[in-house]
Specification:
With 288 residues, chain A is α/β, with parallel strands linked by helices. Helix content of chain A is 41%, strand content 18%. In chain A, the strands form two sheets. In chain A, strands 3, 5, 6, 7, 8, 9, 10 and 11 form an eight-stranded mixed β-sheet that branches. A two-stranded antiparallel sheet of chain A has the order 1-2. In chain A, helix 5 runs parallel beside helix 6. In chain B, strand 5, helix 9 and strand 6 form a beta-alpha-beta unit. The chains are: A alpha/beta (288), B alpha/beta (327).
């Protein structure tokens, strides 16, 4: 008996009562797909890189999981982990939020950076973690992304950034907004040196992150069905006169509109990264 | 043009009306009431000074959006000579929410680019309420590269609620346009002076606001999100847009705060009672600041200019740092 078949029968037999029970226990033995409602055997789901085997929904990955599926085993060395948030604006409840998130995730910020190898190619890599205030970009995030580009520039290494962010972080006001300019300038300086910058857009890649360093990559890969755009869902709805077409601003729509290079299922991303790194890791014999 | 009056301006408007009435009577009846008029005017000016010394961030938001506030074209007409407006991004369309072209500042050619809002309903629609689509930012970038080609400085005037994020704007890559502008502006080999004159609305403003000097008018605001939007999203404000005044205070969107956090270089004063009460006076202050900074930048070498601009944005942000094992 195949495991798939067993899961299928088991999930059907589980019935409504079980589904209700499973909703309350998302981290248990079983995981419910938020898109198609299929009840998935958690271990099998993990083996499938957290992609639903029924509808191909790509679950969000926390930064450690993302690194695991992206870089060579044991190759990641974190940098700038000691950067942490200062509530400069004395924004209400911000300190408490950060403390709670740090305690829960073990992270200081929603951007984790470091060096690693992918298929043997050394890279400087940044991975966004949505658990930390929706992967929003504040001063720490902007500084880490900037240092990432500067590290790549200093060591002549390609840069890979995996995005998963709601946008700029409101709690740091104008300081957050300026991270857009700061990181874009860093990407510009990095690009001038003839080094490759690859971006992976996962669900969601939005607003202040999308409209800054993210869109400046040489090559953009998107995971299927990721929401990608400038305005959040609510603002976008207000801006529309007509009803939004199906699939509006999802990865496939963005590819149709020429805004991403390719949409790849999670399992195929690493192989493609290796090919891209092979093309871009060493300077060509022509040009500047 | 009818003068719109904000709530906190009402006592001033009442005195203005009294003064006008007194002037009318003294003219019609041929009686000299100049002493009374002067007395009232003094009283009004004291009142303005008093009210404007205690503006909240939300009051400033309303002033920055004041329907009578001078817009970019008002400043361009007053500050520069012989403005030659240029149109279109050469890719898709012309965007009327951004204006730009060659102009002369005290006889010297410059490229001036600004967000443009409309005054009446028809004009507001024509200008898309000052919200640019990708073609607007791409036009701005085309003009900036033209200025660079001819070695002329660039002056940008910022006054937009936000970038346009409608279907068409997303379809044509509004995020790409904003991102590209910021990156390209950081690399420009000519001086860039940015003046935030009204609303500095998030990425839509920043897309023309990466420069060597960032100046900001006294009653302008510059924010990562409109206070209404912030209040509607965060539970700190009960997700209630009516809490916008509290969000405005929390977001620290005024020129004083921007200066305190080293995000702008200088606050440009406005005439007593705000720019909308005196266009000429407001433009004079803006012109003085732009000219002074431009004179300074003209002395800097191209290499240093680009390096300083990078470092200027590089140091923006506040964080703590402890050394980690791997850090």
């Amino acid at each position: 008996m195949s495991l798939d078949g067993w899961i299928h029968r088991k999930s059907k037999a589980a019935g409504k009562a079980a589904r209700k029970h499973l909703d309350a226990l998302p981290d248990g033995l079983w995981t419910k797909c938020p898109k198609c409602g299929e009840i998935l055997f958690s271990k099998e789901l993990e083996k499938n890189l957290m992609v639903c085997n029924k509808c191909s929904y790509h679950f969000k990955l926390a930064s450690p999981q993302r690194l695991e599926v992206t870089v060579d085993d044991g190759s990641f060395v974190e940098m700038d982990a000691g950067l942490s948030t200062v509530n400069t604006l004395e924004f209400p409840q911000y300190d408490a939020k950060i403390q709670k998130l740090t305690a829960a995730s073990g992270l200081n910020d929603g951007m984790v950076t470091g060096t690693a190898t992918i298929g043997g190619y050394p890279v400087v890599i940044g991975v966004a973690d949505f658990r930390f205030l929706a992967g929003s970009m504040g001063s720490v995030y902007g500084e880490k992304v900037t240092r990432l580009f500067e590290k790549g520039l200093a060591e002549k290494l390609p840069v890979l950034i995996v995005n998963c962010s709601g946008g700029a972080r409101m709690q740091e006001g104008l300081l957050s907004l300026m991270q857009m300019a700061k990181t874009s300038a860093a990407a510009g300086k990095f690009g001038e040196a003839g080094l490759m910058y690859i971006a992976l857009f996962t669900d969601p890649t939005m607003a202040g992150v999308h409209a800054s360093f993210a869109m400046l990559a040489d090559v953009i890969i998107a995971e299927p069905g990721a929401l990608i755009g400038l305005a959040g869902q609510r603002v976008a709805a207000q801006a529309q006169v007509m009803k939004e077409p199906p699939g509006y601003r999802l990865s496939e729509w963005q590819q149709d509109h020429g805004m991403v290079d390719m949409v790849l299922p999670r399992r195929e991303i690493k192989d493609t990264l290796v090919k891209l790194l092979a093309a871009g890791s060493h300077g060509g014999s022509h040009g500047a | 043009m009818a003068l719109s009056v904000l709530d906190f301006e009402k006592p001033i408007a009442e005195l203005d009306a009294n003064i006008a009435e007194l002037k009318r009577i003294s003219e019609e009846e041929g009686i000299d009431r100049s002493a009374d008029i002067e007395e009232l005017e003094r009283h009004r000016d004291d009142l303005i000074a008093q009210i404007f010394a205690n503006l909240t961030p939300w009051d400033k938001t309303l002033l920055a959006r004041h329907p009578n506030r001078p817009y970019s074209l008002d400043y361009i007409r007053t500050i520069f000579d012989d403005f030659v407006e240029l149109h279109g991004d050469r890719l898709f369309a012309d965007d009327n929410a951004i204006v730009g072209g060659w102009a002369f500042l005290d006889g010297n050619p410059v490229m001036v680019i600004g967000n443009q809002k409309g005054r009446d309903l028809k004009e507001r629609q024509f200008r898309n309420f000052g919200s640019s689509k990708p073609e607007g930012y791409r036009k701005a970038l085309r003009l900036m590269h033209m200025a660079e080609k001819f070695g002329r400085p660039i002056i940008t005037l910022v006054d937009t609620p936000a970038a346009d994020c409608s279907f068409g704007a997303e379809e044509r890559g509004i995020s790409e346009a904003i991102a590209r502008n910021m990156m390209e502006m950081s690399l420009l080999k000519v001086p860039v002076i940015v003046a935030v004159l009204g609303e500095g609305g998030s990425g839509g403003a920043l897309a023309i606001a990466v420069g060597d000097r960032i100046l900001m008018q006294e009653n302008a605001v510059y924010s990562v999100i409109p206070p209404e939007g912030c209040a509607a999203i965060l539970s700190e404000f009960q997700r209630d847009p009516a809490r916008a005044p509290d969000a405005a205070a929390a977001l620290k969107i005024t020129a004083e705060h921007a200066l305190e956090h080293k995000l702008i270089d200088e606050i440009i004063p406005e005439p007593v009672g705000g720019a909308h009460r005196n266009y000429e006076g407001a433009a004079k202050f803006v012109k003085e600041a732009i000219s002074r900074h431009l004179a300074e930048l003209e002395k800097v070498s191209t290499k240093k200019l680009v390096e300083h601009r990078y470092n200027k944005f590089r140091q923006m942000g506040v964080y703590a740092e402890t050394q980690c094992e791997n850090g």
